[in-house]
Amino acid sequence: MEKLKITAGGFVFGAKFEDAAPKTVAKFRTLLPYRQKLIHVRWSGEGCWIPLGDFDFGLGYENHTSYPALGQFLLYPGGISETEIIVAYGGVQFASKMGQLAGNHFMTITDGIENLATLGKKVLWEGAQPIAIEAA
User: Do strands 45-51 and 3-8 pair parallel, antiparallel, or not at all (unpaired)?
Assistant: First the structure.
């Protein structure tokens, strides 16, 4: 499986794509290197997200969950709420102002996980942080 490097808020993480979400992975791979801003979630708990508005990935659900584990990235393909990517740094129940959501678990942090909560708290208290995701 392809290894990824995630740089966010001064931290570097190793990550991998998830085989159980092949369509989401294939689509996201075309966006690499991916650069965006990471902000703190509003409703979901201990997580950070990348709001993508009405961006259409052309995807449905696969390997979807509302309860990502530590270091799991979910892509919500849009529908009742805006398209977004969320990463859990603690307890998360994925939600929006429209209610509970489920997203495609397509990527997981494998290295540096011990710094993820510190990143999450930095985003909470210091605001948006740059994030870059690229092949390692």
Answer: unpaired
Which tokens hold the place of 47?
Answer: 């997580």
The pLDDT tens digits for 44-99 are 999 999 999 999 999 999 999 999 999 999 999 998 899 999 999 999 999 988 88
In a 3-state reduction of DSSP, which class is residue 64? strand
Q: Can you say how many angstroms the Cα of residue 83 is from the centroid of all Cα atoms in its chain?
A: 11
65 Cβ partners below 8 Å, 6+ apart? 72, 74, 94, 102, 103, 105
pLDDT digits (tens, 9 = 90+) for 38-49: 999 988 999 999
Q: Give per-residue burial for 84-121: e unless 16+ CB within 10 Å, then b.
A: bbbbbbeebebbbeeeebbbbbbbbbebbeebbeebbe
Give the C-alpha distances (Å, rounded to integers) separating 78 from 64, 65, 82, 100. 13, 14, 5, 13
